[in-house]
Amino acid sequence: MKAFLRFFFKLLYHQFAFAYDFVAATVSLGQWKNWVSSVLPFIVGTRVLEIGHGPGHLQRLLLSQGLDSVAIDESAPMGLLAKRNTNGKATLTRAFAQRLPFADAAFDTVIATFPAEYITDPLTLAEVRRCLSDGGRFIVLPVALQIGRKPLDRVMSLLFRVTRQSPVDPLEEFKEKLRIPFIEAGFAVDVQELHVKSSLLLVIIAIK
């Protein structure tokens, strides 16, 4: 299942990038953009880097708030989508998180929403820490849990568990597992819970 999902997401992020928004809206029961925008209150400073910008929806929000925002993604199709969705106003770079093409202490906040496994790669974490100013934040939204009581909510919750897109461990144990890679990379870490309608979001706040 894990190998299949990795292959599916690779296709969705590259060859089938045009379908990304439709799939995301479907699996989130229309809440995907609300989930992504939930990270905004955690931003500190004005210099922001988004890792894995996808279709560019968060970039559009960051720009609307007057932030000095930059974004990277390794997918060329996603770069084209993000350029279109931000009317060409976003500063986008094709790059890998493990090799960020930015100077030391270049950003006050780094953000990643629903990233793939690369986000906890020690190389990624070291690069993010290098690029953050002292006291800067690495904000990661790794998972959303469907907790609604409606039949469709329960169906999607079951689907997320079966496909391992939501944790099978008790919540507190899962939160502790989320913290470990960031602590090992030298961050001070907190995991906060956010309720967005019928879903529960876990947000990692890692401070340099």
Topology summary:
Blueprint: H1 2-13, H2 20-27, H3 32-37, E1 47-51, H4 57-64, E2 68-73, H5 76-85, E3 91-94, E4 107-113, H6 122-131, E5 132-146, H7 151-162, H8 171-184, E6 188-196, E7 199-207
Please describe what this structure looks like.
38% of the residues lie in helices and 26% in strands. With 208 residues, it is α/β, with parallel strands linked by helices. It has a single domain, classed as Rossmann fold. The protein has a 7-stranded mixed sheet, sandwiched between helices. The chain is globular and about 35 Å long. The termini are far apart.
Can you tell me the CATH topology? Rossmann fold
Number of structural units classed as domains: 1
Strand content: 25-35%
CATH architecture field: 3-Layer(aba) Sandwich
Q: How would you name the CATH homologous superfamily?
A: Vaccinia Virus protein VP39
How would you sum up the global shape? globular
Can you give the mean pLDDT? 85
CATH domain class: Alpha Beta
Helical stretch count?
Answer: 8
In N-to-C order, the SSE pattern is HHHEHEHEEHEHHEE
Q: What is the gyration radius calculated from CA atoms? A: 16 Å
Tell me roughly what share of residues is in helical segments: 25-40%
The count of strands amounts to 7
Q: Unreliable runs, pLDDT <50, ≥5 residues?
A: 151-159, 161-165
